[in-house]
Write a structure and sequence with these properties.
CATH topology of the largest domain: Rossmann fold
CATH architecture of the largest domain: 3-Layer(aba) Sandwich
Subunit structure: Associates with the 50S ribosomal subunit.
Bound molecules: guanosine-5'-diphosphate
Distance between the termini: 33 Å
CATH superfamily of the largest domain: P-loop containing nucleotide triphosphate hydrolases
GO molecular function: GTP binding; ribosome binding
Number of domains: 3
Protein name: GTPase Der
Function: GTPase that plays an essential role in the late steps of ribosome biogenesis.
Organism: Chitinophaga pinensis (strain ATCC 43595 / DSM 2588 / LMG 13176 / NBRC 15968 / NCIMB 11800 / UQM 2034)
Length: about 450
């Protein structure tokens, strides 16, 4: 299921972010080789038993100061109940049940979403005994764990992944193959997302129909432009938006993730008058890890005084430096108010969509890549040369390549980067994240 979301709620200092980091670590150890992940993330993707899910640390969104406390906590719980599929309610055995715990429990018991009570800091046998008092909060599912040491996390992950509905993979693959390109408009509040959408919708003749999104938080609109059919995904509330809510960073992030999960290609809008923010970069890297195509729009370009060629070129160069290692992405300078290059943006998104579907013939792939490997060998490890014998593109939905070699574990990042760059310079994968796997011949 695309975009199963788990939110961790609880009062400050119970250990939410410790658990959050632990859940994401599981993934890091297995597949995460994308750099640029910041320390103070509030959301991420966790993997367990071949299933993945989004995790939100709601604690990252509320102030830690004691006086704003209650109101903030209520907001946190409310948001989590609205946005998540499953809630982890975390308490701390060291403090026992506090008034605030009891109050949150009251709200959460009335939630229509499933809630798992996680009693944390159960580090030893004494605490295990003490932890039983938490049964009195009245939740059916109770887990005892130590986020710090990780004990109990396997059982919790089993329970979480057990609640994620099974994918019907073949059906999904067929549907996906037949489906229209899906393009999501994402970005922080006030970058111009709704203006862009309105400018596109303004061209009424392009609209074929409105189709409901897979969640109530997104709207899918079927368009026809340049003789091509595609679906634009926007986050609900863009058109008739509730400014107060949409301006909450939390909403913008969660909605962006939902739209992203449903899309093939994301149009990530940045505000030319503001620098690229950490939040922009982490949304960008998340889209990359989810294998989504990307086009970056530097919007409000009309507000930039000096629009000489250099200024755009310099901006793009600097931006790509910050997007590295995944910098093979189209960057378009748009002005939605002046309708500058907004159709170009859609054209690029459709091009990236085609790139993402590209399947390179095995013979061609080997011809090109073995030559590239020949002209720049992988390093020798422990006196043994690494030999890559054969390359093939995997039959996956997003481009992935398997390199068969004698010492797969010894092909390190710099050489992986070299191979990825060779793939990119020989075959057009602009805007598309690539996965490279190394396997024993
Ligand atoms: P948050 O405010 O709910 O996100 O809590 P944090 O994750 O920041 O943790 C608060 C404090 O509790 C930190 O000092 C953690 O090191 C500590 N902590 C978190 N998990 C455990 C645990 O399982 N056992 C113990 N003893 N301490 C923990
Ligand atoms: P959203 O929150 O991302 O949906 O952003 P909006 O579409 O509501 O735009 C926020 C503000 O930026 C509005 O006042 C828009 O008129 C303005 N805006 C959007 N695009 C542009 C642009 O290309 N140039 C300029 N100058 N203003 C823009």
């Amino acid at each position: 299921m695309a975009g199963f979301t788990v939110a961790i709620v609880g009062r400050p200092n119970v250990g939410k972010s410790t658990l959050f980091n632990r859940l994401l670590e599981q993934r890091k150890a297995i597949v995460d080789d994308v750099s640029g992940v910041t320390r103070d993330r509030q959301y991420g993707v966790a993997d367990w038993n071949g299933k993945s899910f989004n995790v939100i640390d709601t604690g990252g969104f509320v102030s830690r100061s004691e006086d704003v406390f209650e109101r903030e906590i209520r907001k946190q719980v409310k948001i989590a109940m609205e946005e998540a599929n499953l809630l982890l309610f975390m308490c701390d055995v060291a403090t026992g049940i506090t008034d605030l715990d009891a109050e949150m429990a009251d709200i959460l018991r009335r939630s229509s979403k499933p809630v798992i009570l996680v009693v944390n800091k159960v580090d030893n046998a004494t605490r295990q005994l003490e932890a039983t008092e938490f049964y009195s909060l009245g939740f059916e599912k109770v887990f005892f764990m130590s986020s710090m040491s990780g004990s109990g996390s396997g059982e919790l992950l089993d329970e979480i992944t057990g609640q994620i509905p099974e994918d019907d993979e073949t059906r999904e693959a067929i549907e996906a193959a037949e489906a229209l390109p899906k393009i999501a408009i994402i970005g922080q509040p006030n970058v111009g997302k709704s203006s862009l959408l309105n400018a596109l919708i303004g061209e009424e003749r392009n609209i074929v129909s409105d189709i409901p999104g897979t969640t109530r938080d997104t709207i899918h609109t079927h368009y026809k432009m340049f003789q091509k059919d595609f679906v634009l995904i926007d986050t609900a509330g863009l058109r008739r938006k509730n400014k107060v809510q949409e301006d909450l960073e939390f909403y913008s992030v969660i909605r962006a993730i939902k739209a992203m999960d449903e899309a093939d290609v994301c149009l990530l809008l940045l505000d030319a008058t503001k620098g690229v923010t950490a939040q922009d970069l982490s949304i960008f890297s998340l889209a990359g890890r989810k294998g989504k195509g990307l086009v970056v729009l530097v919007n409000k370009w009309d507000l930039i005084e000096d629009k000489s060629t250099n200024s755009a070129r310099d901006y793009e160069k600097d931006l790509k430096g910050r997007l590295a290692p995944f910098s093979d992405v189209p960057v378009i300078f748009t002005s939605v108010v002046e309708k500058q290059r907004i159709f170009k943006a859609i054209e690029e998104a459709l091009r990236v969509y085609d790139n993402r579907k590209r399947k390179v013939q095995t013979s061609k792939l080997n011809e090109v890549m073995l030559k590239a490997i020949e002209s720049f060998h992988p390093p020798v490890v422990r006196g043994i040369p690494i030999k890559i014998k054969y390359v093939t593109q995997l039959p996956t939905f997003t481009p992935a390549f398997a390199f068969f070699c004698n010492l797969p574990d010894d092909v390190k990042q710099p050489y992986r980067n070299y191979l990825e760059n060779q793939l990119r310079s020989n075959f057009d994968f602009e805007g598309v994240p690539l996965k490279l796997f190394f396997r024993k011949k």
